[in-house]
UniProtKB/TrEMBL annotation, chain A:
InterPro entries referenced in this protein's UniProt entry, alphabetically: BP-dep_ABC_trans_perm, MetI-like, MetI-like_sf
Keyword Cell membrane (UniProt): yes
Keywords from the UniProt entry: Cell membrane, Membrane, Transmembrane, Transmembrane helix, Transport
Bilayer topology: Multi-pass membrane protein
Alphabetical GO biological process terms: transmembrane transport
Upper classification of the organism: Bacteria, Bacillati, Actinomycetota, Actinomycetes, Micromonosporales
Stated name of the protein: Arabinogalactan oligomer transport syst em permease protein GanQ
Subcellular compartments: Cell membrane
Transmembrane portions of the chain: 12-30, 72-94, 106-127, 139-159, 180-205, 238-259
From TrEMBL, chain B:
Listed GO biological process terms: maltodextrin transmembrane transport; maltose transport
Recorded superkingdom: Bacteria
InterPro entries to which the protein is assigned, alphabetical: SBP, TAT_signal
Protein name: Maltodextrin-binding protein MdxE
Length: 274, 412, 323
């Protein structure tokens, strides 16, 4: 932790280069979002949007903002439900080892292999019977299926690293299983909770197939469907598509950075393990 | 099916339980309107927002039929799956607008009503356009507008290269023009040969223009058409990127001003006005001269099968309203399509003389699922685009590629 | 994996690495009597699995065992076909090449994603100015809808107007037909998929690194261990459970990938970048006339592949245990 030597800034330099490399396609997306139609396939390509246009952004700001709100709500709902379902399961599989637990882990593995479109078809049939097509809770519930198996397996892997002595100590202190889970296991698992939340959020944020099948006709459409305003039957408005992606990723990126900050603080605070 | 529905019911109970856990008190949006005054319309025009003319027209037609219209625009590929799924679950919309080759698939699935059931009047529609919606003497929908392919050219570039576009009458003169353009250091032609229906759509004018038939993919004529494309790529007249180009990508290439010709559709007319150079259009030439028959594109309005057959009457009013002369004119102008009715075509051509070429092209065009191919077409088309891809990417000679295609299309 | 899990490994390793820590718990404790009550913690997820995955899974199996046409898909009454759909798929001349592509795609993607993800995780685990912000920024690709990121890659790799070929041209290399030549298309989709997968590996491995107590490093630093020794002596063993699960999940997600490939090359040209997942999608949903049966059969073959991977994972786990 205390490695702030003069070498640190040199590392920042390397970090910037690595990040730059990783984000280059993102830069390209931004570049295209400002590009006029006639320059899109210029050869050689323009590195900067010379003669740029704001048409894409004009279209997006006029039409897309409500979709962003929906995406946020769905993302947060997915995170909450995923953690609520998966954390206790991870704890049980890692530490309590009930008979049949491995079989359940195995089922979770299989569950992730079902093609998304088949899952969506199943949900469509169920939701239609229930009349919850085109509702936010419906979409949230469907989106959690993207994250729950992953979350359980990740929680299992991480929670298995919690020293047994820590849990033993809690039991000695007279805490019940539930209390141990709530006040010992969850706090030291903060790290994995954030990891899981992050992925749950990102997966629901970028989900298209559930959104289209289950929420395509309603008032609650997420941003991935918003993009389809620029994909007509024969024609695609690429600067607007890319502009939507840019506008959509800015608030989410800010959220990511804030979350990271919170995690790092949380981890240093909770790092006292033995 | 009973076991299945029991499972579904079980699942449903679990959903309720979990929905309660999520604290979902707000089931705000109404159930997809199986009853009541709302009529559902699905279309493949997600680019039209709620404040667009298209949606205004839908609402207006709803009002005059005495119902409210709930409309949803889907991505076009997504819409086919969604329509099948909805039909399976008995939840089809009242009015469904889909790309014309999909009609035969949905009709095969028994998801669409015929004009006998829904009493739609299709007599005004041009026969060659209506063909895509017909099979076994039954008509499953009404075209709402048509488009087809032609060659756009860059006037400035052709003038500089000394090419007279009017002299491009057949394949030989076209290739000669491309050679002249290349000598000027510019690029010849761009099109879309992607491995989807779009690729077949773009290849068909050349295929048909050679005299080949879809029932015999490996005929010498067919080989000559594929050889034409392959040679263009080999000689650098067409870019290698065509193998992966969608029609939009190919248009973007043309829009750079580096290309002399581009094979593209009616729908690009609005974008063509925004080009940084002057352009013109000619019909795609047939091998021996004259215009080649191009495939028709464009959407059909259909009335899916409903449990409550009483709804057809109102749906029929809605569709009739959408496809009456004035409304067709509005819709096809916004979509940059050619109307499916001769009288409206005349009005379009008078209003905008540039459309004349396109009206003629549409009249000469041919339905893909016509010739009684129906649901055989998708298999043939897949074999065809695969052959085009393997010849263009150098995997096989045109002859071998098309022979393999014919085998693939006739088996299975 | 009866009774033994990664738990005791991790704990034992922790004990071993930090020699000051108390000795690990006796293994017998893990074999204590019935713990059926622990299912209380598992109940929500079990109900959830049964409710939402059972039906689609059943549906996928059912689709693959019947001879569906569009008509019977909508109207019902598809005849039972036994294993015909599987036979159709397995005897298709495209099966062999497609399986090979799937294996190459998966192996190459996993290797590069994991190695690069691990390297980045180790790098960003050091604390230097801006490290947290930069690490968060590397996740941005995940926020993009796949249609956007995959399209951007096909933009960059375009034969004629792509930036990659333009850059190659600057250093005097001939343009490569990344997406349009059968020899390169698989490489191109692998590159894009590796890029998309790096953030996943980075995040999970980084969280794993954070769970390693810093005292261990301090202790070994006192012993004069080099960075390389520390990695193999402490980091790698302690990261093993997390690494294994990352690889396993990565494997499953990679087997399943179809949208990136579909958007970039549609599996082509001529099937040269087709994997089982894209093939399944093409049959079932990428055509005007869907063939649900064979499509679902391929989907189920993929599930079997994932099952095999899961079994291998458990074997490795157990061998780890016995060592």
């Amino acid at each position: 932790m205390t490695t702030s030597t003069p070498r640190a800034w040199w590392k920042t330099g390397v970090g910037l280069v690595l990040t730059g490399l990783m984000l280059f396609p993102v830069y390209w997306m931004i570049n295209v979002s400002f590009t006029r139609d006639q320059d899109m396939r210029a050869s050689p390509p323009h590195l900067f949007p010379t003669n740029g246009t704001l048409d894409g952004y004009r279209a997006v700001l006029d039409q897309q903002l409500p979709y962003l709100g929906t995406s946020f709500l769905v993302g947060l709902g997915t995170v909450a439900l995923t953690v609520a379902l998966a954390a206790p399961a991870g704890y049980a599989l890692a530490k309590l080892r009930p008979p049949g637990g491995p079989a359940l882990s195995f089922l979770l593995l299989i569950a992730q292999m079902i093609p998304g479109i088949i899952m969506a078809m199943g949900f469509y049939a169920i939701y239609l019977t229930l009349g919850v097509l085109n509702t936010l809770p419906g979409l949230i519930l469907a989106d959690t299926t993207l994250a729950v198996p992953f979350a359980v397996l990740i929680f299992t892997a991480f929670m298995s690293g919690i020293p047994d002595e820590l849990l033993q100590a809690a039991v000695v202190d007279g805490a019940g299983r539930l209390r141990t889970f709530w006040s010992v296991v969850l706090p030291v698992s903060r790290n994995s909770i954030v990891t899981v939340s992050l992925f749950a959020f990102l997966w629901s944020w970028s989900d298209f197939i559930f959104a289209s099948t289950l929420a395509g006709g309603g008032d609650h459409q997420p941003i991935t469907l918003g993009i389809y305003h620029y994909i007509g039957n024969n024609n695609q408005q690429w600067n607007a598509i890319m502009a939507t992606a840019v506008v959509a990723s800015i608030p989410a990126a800010v959220l990511l950075i804030l979350a990271q900050r919170y995690v790092s603080m949380g981890v240093t605070a909770g790092a006292v393990k033995d | 099916m009973t076991g299945l529905s029991r499972r579904r019911r079980l699942a449903a109970v679990a959903v309720i339980a979990l929905a309660a856990v999520t604290g979902s008190a707000c089931s705000s949006s109404a159930d997809s309107g199986a009853d009541g005054g709302a009529y559902l319309v699905w279309d493949p025009y997600p680019q039209f927002a709620d404040d667009s003319e298209w949606v205004a027209l839908l609402k207006k037609c709803g009002t005059s039929a005495g119902v409210t219209v709930e409309r949803t625009g889907y991505d076009t590929t997504d819409l086919t799956n969604k329509a099948l799924l909805a039909a399976q679950q008995g939840n089809s919309p009242d009015v469904l607008i889909v790309d014309n080759p999909v009609i035969s698939t949905l009709a095969e699935a028994g998801a669409l009503t015929t004009t006998d059931d829904n009493k739609l009047d299709v007599s005004a529609m041009e026969k060659n356009l209506l063909g895509a919606g017909q099979s076994d003497g039954k008509t499953y929908g009404v075209p709402i507008g048509a488009n087809t392919l032609a060659l756009y050219y860059n006037k400035d570039l052709l003038t500089a290269a000394g090419v007279d576009p009017a002299a491009v009458k057949d394949w030989t003169s076209l290739t000669a023009a491309l050679t002249k353009v290349k000598a000027k250091g510019k690029k010849g032609i761009t099109f879309s040969a992607i491995g989807t229906e779009e690729g077949s759509f773009q290849f068909l004018p050349w295929f048909w223009g050679s005299g080949a038939q879809l029932t015999s993919l490996d005929s010498p004529q067919a080989v000559s058409a594929l050889t034409l494309w392959t040679d263009w790529l080999k000689q650098g007249h067409a870019p290698n990127s065509v193998i992966n180009n969608t029609q939009t990508t190919s248009w973007q290439e043309f829009a750079t001003g580096d290309y002399a010709f581009a094979e593209n559709g009616t729908w690009q007319l609005a974008n063509a006005e925004k080009l940084g150079f002057s352009y013109g259009t000619i019909a795609i030439p047939a091998s021996a001269g004259g215009p080649a028959p191009a495939p028709t594109g464009g959407e059909f309005v259909s009335i899916p099968v409903q449990k409550k057959t009483g709804r057809y009457e109102t749906s029929q009013k809605l569709v009739t309203c959408l496809t009456n002369a004035d409304n067709l004119l509005t819709t096809d102008t916004t979509l940059s399509y050619v109307a499916p009715v001769a009288a409206v075509q005349e009005r379009q051509a008078t209003a905008d003389p540039k459309l004349k070429v396109w009206v003629e092209a549409v009249r000469a065009a041919k339905g893909r699922t016509g010739d009684n191919l129906g649901t055989k077409y998708p298999k043939i088309s897949e074999a065809l685009w695969t052959a085009v891809q393997s010849a263009l990417s150098g995997g096989k000679s045109p002859q071998e590629a098309l022979a393999a295609a014919q085998t693939a299309a006739s088996t299975r | 994996m009866p009774s033994t899990t990664e738990t005791s490994t991790a704990v034992r390793d922790q004990g071993g690495a930090a020699s000051a820590a108390p000795p690990g718990p006796p293994p017998s404790r893990a074999r204590r009597p019935s713990r059926w009550w622990a299912w209380g913690f598992l109940a929500p997820v079990t109900i959830y699995l049964a409710a939402f995955y059972a039906y689609p899974l059943y549906r996928n199996v059912e689709l693959s065992l019947r001879e569906y046409t569009v008509r019977s898909f909508v109207q019902g009454g598809a005849p039972f076909a036994g294993l015909d759909n599987y036979r159709t798929v397995l005897t298709d001349p495209a099966f062999g090449p497609t399986l090979t592509h799937t294996l190459v795609f998966t192996a190459a993607s996993l290797t590069f994603q994991f190695t690069i993800g691990m390297a980045l995780a180790l790098f960003f685990h050091q604390h230097f100015p801006l490290s947290r912000t930069l690490r968060a920024l590397i996740l941005v690709p995940w926020l993009l809808p796949l249609i956007v990121s995959a399209s951007t890659w096909s933009w960059l790799l375009n034969s004629d107007s792509g930036l990659v070929n333009a850059a190659l041209g600057v250093v005097g290399i001939d343009p490569v037909n990344w997406l349009t030549s059968p020899g390169w298309s698989l490489t191109s989709v692998i590159i894009a998929n590796v890029w998309i997968g790096i953030p996943f590996n980075l995040v999970v491995l980084y969280s794993g690194l954070q769970a390693i107590p810093t005292e261990m490093y301090e202790a070994s630093a006192l012993d004069g261990a080099t960075g390389w020794q520390r990695f193999w002596g402490i980091t790698f063993p302690l990261l093993r459970p997390v690494s294994l699960i990352t690889l396993l999940l990565g494997l499953i997600y990679t087997l399943k990938v179809f949208d990136i490939i579909w958007i970039m090359t549609k599996g082509g040209p001529t099937g040269s970048s087709a994997t089982l997942a894209t093939w399944s999608y093409r049959l079932g949903f990428g055509n005007l006339l869907p063939e649900f049966g064979p499509g679902a059969a391929i989907g189920n073959l993929l599930i079997v592949l994932a099952l095999i991977a899961g079994l291998v994972y458990i074997r490795i786990e157990r061998r780890q245990q016995l060592r």
